[in-house]
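Retro notes - structure team

What went well: the batch runner handled both jobs without manual restarts.
What didn't: labels got mixed up in the shared folder, which is why I'm recording both outputs here explicitly, each with its sequence directly above its tokens.

Job 1
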Amino acid sequence: METREELTESLEDYLEAIYGIILRKNAVRVKEIATELKVRYPSVTSALKALEKRGLINYEPYGTITLTKTGHETAIQITEKHRLLKSFFSTVLGVDNETADETACRIEHVISREVYIRLVRFVKFMYLSHESTETWLRDFRRFVKTDTPEIVGPHCIEDYFDGTGFELEGEHHEAGNA
């Protein structure tokens, strides 16, 4: 049996969709997956066969699809990662829900476990260590509205952080050096 790490982004999306549909309707069929993911039935069938081969779902053509224990656990991990990322982008960064959801969907597939765990810990730390998280978030949103970064040219990121004490990793560029 293949492992969770060998799932493609597409298969993770199918697994996440199956899980979501099961939560809402208690059962899932090919048609519902195709509608949810906006794909054609043959694409769904191909993905279901791949997920079944990996031992993540139980699938019989024209029947309902169920998650195996491993499939259920994997789907929860994918879904939780998506939820945290979307929540961080919308709640902390103040990004609109649609953009937060789309961005979370992309990043959930490539974020390493280590970085994800650090983000989880950062969010918890941020909420537990500040006396007034609401004040902090309000101040951040005010800063975002008034700060107008021009991060478009060479070395502009260095210029943006100049005087803040934040050091960018990697090669340091001096003005005028190529």
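Job 2
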Amino acid sequence: MQITAIEPRKKGLSALYIDGEFAMKLDTEVILAHRFDVGREITDEALHDCVLDSDRKRCKDKAMWLISFRDHSRRELLDKLRKDYPEDVAEAAVDRLEELGLIDDGRYARRYTADLINLKHLSERGIRQKLREKGIDRDLIDEILEETEVDEDEQIRTIIEKKYASKLNDEKLRRRAVAALQRLGFSYQSIKSVLNEYTDIEEY
């Protein structure tokens, strides 16, 4: 096989033409590193190695780009990378970022838990569910919740005062408020107890 053209493309890629036909787009830096020049004869093995190195670099670059915007759990990042790259390439990229300390499920889960408490005002059950959705290990979830105080009554009060305090005397709106709080993971009994602080109506 002979490389007959190498043409620059967007986002650091170049189009590789072999025997006069378009073959694929590869990372430009990787093409240069492999000394792929127009007119050079290459083997299937050499092409395969270049493709693999291109995937590895592009995958790592994308991972770095993703975590530059916000922190990610391991599984969350892996799921995004798998959409564009082979499983083993994505795993290798995530493993490398873990080795460098750029992703850390413990650090991520603690920060996320703090946000779920202070910004979303979730219950412990709601927090547990959100962490599971991010792929956080069950034992780590238990550890974090053991060291984190979640005052569920206070969480319910905060949500009521932000969203529902003026609506509790309307039966239909009150029931909607109860349903919304239940979806956040709060028990019916806890919701009822706190609602009784805001209204004399005890039937929900």
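One thing worth noting from job 2: The two ends are 76 Å apart (CA to CA).
We'll revisit the folder naming next retro.
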